[in-house]
Amino acid sequence: MSMRQDPMAAAAELILRLETICKNPKQFLSYDSQCNDATVESLSNSLICTVGEISTWPSASNVIPGQVTFTVDLRAMDDMGREAILYELSDQIYQICDKRSVSCNIDRKHDANAVLCDSELTSQLKFAANAAIERMTGEVQDEVSVLMSGAEHDAMAMAHLTKQVRMLFVRCRGGVSHSPAEHVLDEDVWAAGLAMLAFLETHM
């Protein structure tokens, strides 16, 4: 066992290290003129890291893999912070692979810059959502939340045409979305429709 060069064990250690870095970015980032308190605070509130795919070769139950490949998805509101995490993760990958005497290669498949929604339009849509809920219930509700979305919505694709983008989210049962198990209540759809109607009425 002490002579093994096992890429599966290396991958397992790397995935756990990724989880640790992404749960506690403050412990791993070094501060400089670019990575400051605001960047680190943004990461602490928005950083999402996912390993969604692992493949091995030759994939036999009693054979040490000759090759293990896994994906890493990093998402954050701050591009500079995301790059800092990627740099730290890359450094950790090479250290762990070297310690375990396995070779490693990092291939960046896709990059997409973060897009910030227009603050004024977001405030107006938030006001409209509060008004819609009050109209339905007859009561003033707690303030509507402003959320970060990690998914690549159409707003990202449209951001190069106009900076005036914003989105309205409808809550899903159990927080599950983008899945066949996604479910929303009829009254929530109705509230979203009323909010959009109120928003459009004030802009026409």
TrEMBL record:
One of its GO terms (biological process) is purine nucleobase metabolic process. It catalyses: allantoate + H2O + 2 H(+) = (S)-2-ureidoglycine + NH4(+) + CO2. Its EC number is 3.5.3.9. It is found in: Endoplasmic reticulum. Its cofactor is Mn(2+). One of its GO terms (cellular component) is endoplasmic reticulum. It is an enzyme of class 3 (hydrolase). The keyword Nuclease does not apply. Its main location: endoplasmic reticulum. One of its GO terms (molecular function) is metal ion binding. Keywords: Endoplasmic reticulum, Hydrolase, Manganese, Metal-binding, Purine metabolism, Signal. Belongs to the peptidase M20A family. Homodimer. Involved in the catabolism of purine nucleotides. Can use allantoate as substrate. The sequential activity of AAH, UGLYAH and UAH allows a complete purine breakdown without the intermediate generation of urea. This is allantoate deiminase.
